[in-house]
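ok here's All-trans-phytoene synthase:
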Amino acid sequence: MSIGQPRLVSTPNACGPCGTSSSLAASYADCQRLAKRSARNFYYSFLVLPKPQRLSMCALYAFLRKTDDLGDSEESVESKRAKLQHWRFQFDKAMAGEIPEICWWRAFVDTVQKYQIPRAYFDHVIDGVMDDLVKTRYASFGELYQYCYKVASVVGLSCLRIWGATDEEAALPAEWCGIAFQLTNVLRDVVEDKQRDRVYLPQDELIRFGVAEEELEGPRASEAFVEMMRFQVARAEDYYARSEVLFDHLPGDAHAVLRVMRDVYHGLLGKIARDPSQVLSRRVSLSPARKIAIVARGMSSQWLTRSS
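and the structure:
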C-alpha cells in the first residue's frame, strides 16, 4: 500500500495536559507536521480546504500513515501481526474514550467524533494492512478490488464526512474514486512491490497477456508488458470517469480538494499511459512545479466558488 513516504515517527506527548484545548491544538499541529513531511500527494490537496477541515484531513492521514507503517516495517510477519492486533486494541480503547498518551491520537479521535466517521471504515483499513502480511498475490481483479476498497475507498468515504457531503448518492462514486487512486498506485509501484514479493496485478491477467512475474523486476519491458499495462491504464481511466459524478454530490469547498487529488493522481496515470515501460526503470512522479500549478488552480477555483 502506498499512502506516502518517507517514514516518520511522531514525537510522543508534546501536547500538555490531556483534555485541555491547548493539548488538542498541539495534537492537530502534530498531525499537520506529519502530513506536511510525509503525505506528498495528499498534503497538496489539503491546502485548499478551510483550516478546520484541513487539520482534520491531517489527523485522518496520521492514522492511515501509522497503520500503513506497521505493515511495511522490516520486522517478521508474526511481529507485525501482533503489533497490528495491538493497534486495533488501541483504536478500540481510543474510541471508548481511553486515548493513548501519544500526541496525534487526540486530534484523530476528535476528528472521528466531530464528523461521525463510522469506525467500520478504520477496521477495514487495518484489515487491508493485515491482508498484506499474508496475501501477496491476487487471482483476479475481483480480489484486487476488495483490497483497494479496504485501503483506499474507505479513505474516500471518510473524507466525505470531513468535507460535509451528506448526499447518500456520493458513496458509490467515492468508492470508485478510491479504486482509481489505488490502481494508479499499483501501476506506479510495480517494481517496488515486487521487491517486497507483492504482486497486485491480477494473476489471470498476467497470464492472459503472457507476462512473467520476473519482468516486474525491470528494468526492461517486453511488448507483452506494455500491452498489459495499457489494459490496466484503461481500466483505471474507466474508474476515474465513473467517479467524476462525485462532484455533483459535494458541497462547494470540497470541489477544490477533490479536484486537486484527482488531478495529481490522474496526472500520474497520464504519465504512465504515455510510456508504460518507464515504471520498470524509475518511480513515476509529478514535478513540484506541476503539483504547485495543480494546487494553485484548486485554490483559484475555490476562491471563485466562495465569491460567486
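+1. The chain has 13 helices and no strands.
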